Amino acid sequence: xxxxxxxxxxxxxxTVPADLSAAIAEVKAALRARIEASGRTVxxxxxxxxxxxxxxxxxxxxxxxxxxxxxxxxxxxxxEAGRVSAEQLDNLRARxxxxxxxxxxxxxxxxxxxxxxxxxxxxxxxxxxxxxxxxFFGSVGSKPEIYPIYWSAAQMExxxxxxMANVQAFLNSQWNHESxxxxxxxxxxxxxxxxxxxxxxxxxxxxxxGTHLDPGTVDLWMTEAYQKAFRHLFxxxxxxxxxxDAAHRTAGPQYPGSTMCSAFRTFxxxxxxxxxxxxxxVLHTVPIPEAMGYLMLRPLLRDVPEDDxxxxxxxxxxxxxxxxxxxxxxxxxxxxxxxxxxxxxxxADMIHSVAPVTDQKGWGNVMYIPAAPWCPRxxxxxxxxxxxxxTGSSPSDFPAExxxxxxxxxxxxxxxxxxxxxxxxxx
Length: 427
Fold this sequence. Notes:
This protein is an alpha+beta fold. It contains 16 helices and 16 strands.
């Protein structure tokens, strides 16, 4: 049942309500009432975000017309030396995405790629592969494209490396992580969030992934912490909405979904293990962090059915669709060419997709490593990560495939450095 108080708090459900349709209708009515109590209509508040986003869409269209690279690109050496310019920082915060050139030496990335092949082949992964473990990534038609591998030496070496820690701290620091006397996360300490790898061979055909986002599903409207996180959208102070504000985002629960992430991420990311050209089935984003405000307010408009959040529901990916979000999708923009050792990052609330490809030219190999700073939510998840690491199991956010439990050559606890131990909550 919903939870409310006589002080006018919004109804909220910390677990999935038994009657989801009724709960959606209830919370939408309450959110509209909250907005209208401020003296503004829902339409007026939505128009503020709509105009803010429209200006960004126009900027991006103009940049493309001028032949400019929409994605910011920063050299790793400049991040390491602390010489990223104010203009580059402004561009990063405006676009919410980044390519880090030379994050790792090219030779290191290519060696990691080879070592992953040795790891899976020596443990007969392909002979024992049982097919995609989830419906979402299974849609790419891979054989496999997404490898459910988490504990190779290559992945762990990259996760606990000083170069990775430097970039994660740089990205975390773009967020406002302290307010009201609370430090919502520690920007200089990342939790070690294990994710999979992708290896797409030359000549591959891939269906790609449609436009979606990963921060949650209907819990974004229906749990108390997220209602506070998005408070400015719902209390008449929409001009103060800041997509870089971490307040209240690091402690609340999350409903189950196809791309559920138990950790709080400031940025999703991957590190390239091969060269990839921009037209070979690569990542695209809507590089507008403020678009989340549009996505959160759009279901409150009267053309959306009362029990519908523009298609967002539990146990499915959060969709961004032409039906409800067409103005946003005009800005969808792919990454520039990347080379082995570069890394690619996008704000955790950002709409993204992977373009389809036919007869891919060259390999398309990445390992997924996000920025997930140390906070109460990530500290809780670290306990399950430690258990998965010790047994070679699939982490609890992912399908329970457990290929690596009996594998040889798995990264060992003895090989953890200080960064790795801190990321697992071991010190």
